[in-house]
Amino acid sequence: MLKLFLPMVGLLMFLNLNYVWVLFILIVMLSLLNFLFNYMSWGMILIKLSSWSMIDSMSSLLMVLTMWMCIMMVICSFKYFMYFYSVLVCFWNLHWVFMLVLLMSFSQVNIVLFYILFEFSLIPTMWLIMKWGYQPERLQASLYLVMYTVMGSLPMLCCILFMGYCNSSLSFFMWPVFVNMYFIESWWLMFLLGFLVKLPMYPFHLWLPKAHVEAPVSGSVILASILLKLGGYGVIRMGLMYPWLNLSSIPMLLSFSLLGGVISSFICLRQIDLKSLIAYSSVSHMGLMLMGALSSSKVGLFGSMMMMVSHGFSSSALFIMANMNYDSCNSRSILVCKGTLLVVPVVSLFWFLFCIMNMAAPPFINLVSEISIMMSVTFISSGSLMVIGLISFLTLCYSLNMYAVINHGSWSNYLGMYKMVWLKDYVMLIYMIVPSLMLLLKLN
């Protein structure tokens, strides 16, 4: 892949020096795709980096997603530091700290260090919301973010210390020898609580719409694509070590996930705030992901991983396009932002592609993930298949409604001209579509 594109990139650099930054990002993205297709396997291949870090197939996929989205985070925030050098330095340092913390989180062996990094990732996110948020309510959104996640993680910390004391080890790979008699279902639910809040699972989801609405576009991208995946990563990692505890607690968690998916979908149908609509759709999708992760089956874990990756691309792209609409209309209401098809047809095409990606239509990998999760949940409870079908139908309804309301109709006379769509906007949207399509080539 690199051998094909590098000569073309070198030729374009000589033709137009104004696009050097685009070509540099293109080279970085192609390098990540090259690693993804040549060195990553879906099997559980373990690579030990040091005494405290390791990489397996799950970690490597999420680490590539982290680097990809951190680059997108810089591109979509270009307007914040276009004219201010001090803002550029601050944001650039915050970006590198954030990416380093996330990469270390996905490669940890020591559970205490993972917990510290898991909680430390809140600090850059809270800073993004408080510093570059849109409304005065960003202080309340930051408080919700911190209080929900910290209070949910305190029981998890107690369980970590208790298990480390009983097992005389803090390593992920030494805990399966822990005696089951000490670890009843209530302790297991307390341990999962920190991950379920970060996921977020219904009814611990109230911080997510508030954080998304008040966050800048870079904060929404990193929240949707990476921070929610920390919770899913923890649930899957713990479920691989204690599958029997997952199966004992799945009736209650499965019921809450199904109930939350239906309620979140109905909220999306009546939601007029564009960012809130996308945020509540994330709650519904993460509920489906949790069902596959708790099934303790190979098909369910595969579907959960694919759901996390595909949701990272689709939800982040929808937040980027919602920000483009906000820059043009100065409003997040879908009742105001209309007529995109008449003004910018290319942007309307991207809206259509990402809406069908969000509702798991072919040819995107979202469809494969939902089918895998349905197969795994059917073996546990065949009656839940009807509820999952209802969630999928409601997802189709609000996704098509969002596309129709925003793109059809006439452009309001009370609004100014639609802002110019720059090259960086098309670059971002293309970089969100290509990986989701090319991951299908990796399936076997």
What does this structure look like?
GO terms for molecular function: NADH dehydrogenase (ubiquinone) activity; NADH dehydrogenase activity; ubiquinone binding. Its EC number is 7.1.1.2. The chain crosses the membrane at residues 12-37, 57-76, 83-106, 112-130, 142-165, 177-197, 217-236, 248-269, 276-295, 301-322, 334-354, 387-406, 426-443. It holds the Pfam family Proton_antipo_M. Keywords: Electron transport, Membrane, Mitochondrion, NAD, Respiratory chain, Translocase, Transmembrane, Transmembrane helix, Transport, Ubiquinone. With 444 residues, the protein is mainly alpha-helical. It has one domain (40-442). The protein contains 18 helices and 2 strands. The chain has helices at residues 2-15, 20-38, 57-76, 85-105, 111-120, 122-132, 138-167, 185-198, 207-214, 217-241, 243-269, 274-294, 298-329, 340-343, 345-358, 365-380, 384-407, 423-438; strands at residues 47-48, 54-55. It has a two-stranded antiparallel ribbon. A hairpin with a 5-residue loop joins β1 and β2. The chain starts with a helix and ends in a 6-residue tail after the last helix.
